Amino acid sequence: MAFPTDGPTWASDDGAAIDVPSSAEIARGFDCGLVTPGRFNYIIQALQAAVAALSAGNFVSQLRSIATTEGIKGGGTLENDLTLSLAINDLQAETSIANDDLIAIYDASAGAHRSMTRSDFVQGLGGDTGGGLIIGADNIGTGTGEFFSGVDGGNLEFRTLEAGSGLNVVIAGDNVVVSFADMGSALTFA
């Protein structure tokens, strides 16, 4: 039997009227026992209206599925609840980095996920005005000489050795090699 999806709902029993219960009867509930044709028609009409309101043709089959791609995991059929999540380790590594590449972020002040360009992200990392602060540095060589001077705001400061007056400075891999002919004058940093 097809239910109407628009227009008034109906029920009948040899022309019997639909007997709508009073508010007090609805609050009390129906008594057990014989049901008049009019009251029976009211119940059928209410059930038919509820079924028609479901729009059963719009339900999705549990055999349908959600497929995932590009680092999203948790897909499957609709037989059970699904939880989708980002599988960041499954994403393909970017090998051609560009400033207009997008990075996913969570904007805590807006309480929402947003995207940001690589250029804007990097801008936010360095310096006092950029939002970040560099607080130190490491000597990458194996020697005992320290050429790092200090941090000024968000900038690392370095000192350099100047060659000359018997002083020879050579970079060998990660090391700076300094040699000199004699100690005719004091060594100075420039």
How many individual helices? 3
From N to C, what is the helix and strand string? HHEEEEEEHEEEE
**Rg (C-alpha, Å):** 39 Å
What's the total number of strands?
10
**Biggest pleated-sheet summary:** 2 strands, antiparallel
Helix content bin: 10-25%
Q: End-to-end distance, in Å?
A: 96 Å
Low-confidence parts lasting 5 or more residues at pLDDT below 50? none
Number of domains: 3
**Major β-sheet strand ordering:** 1-3
Mean pLDDT over the residues: 74
- Quaternary state of the chains: single chain
Strand content: 15-25%
Provide the structure class: alpha+beta
Morphology? rod-shaped
Features:
3 domains; 190 residues; alpha+beta; two-stranded antiparallel sheet
What's the layout of helices and strands?
Elements: H1 23-28, H2 37-53, E1 65-66, E2 72-73, E3 76-77, E4 85-86, E5 102-107, E6 112-117, H3 118-123, E7 148-152, E8 155-158, E9 167-172, E10 175-180
Antiparallel strand pairs: 1-3, 2-4, 5-6, 7-8, 9-10
How would you characterize the overall build of this protein?
By secondary structure, the chain is of the alpha+beta class. It folds into 3 domains: 1-59, no CATH class; 65-123, no CATH class; 134-190, no CATH class. It is 15% helix and 22% strand. It has 3 helices and 10 strands, in the order ααββββββαββββ. It has helices at residues 23-28, 37-53, 118-123; strands spanning 65-66, 72-73, 76-77, 85-86, 102-107, 112-117, 148-152, 155-158, 167-172, 175-180. The strands form 5 sheets. It has a two-stranded antiparallel ribbon with strand order 1-3. Strands 2-4 form a two-stranded antiparallel sheet. Strands 5-6 form a two-stranded antiparallel sheet. The longest helix is centred in the first third of the chain and has 17 residues, at 37-53. The radius of gyration is 39 Å and the shape is rod-shaped.
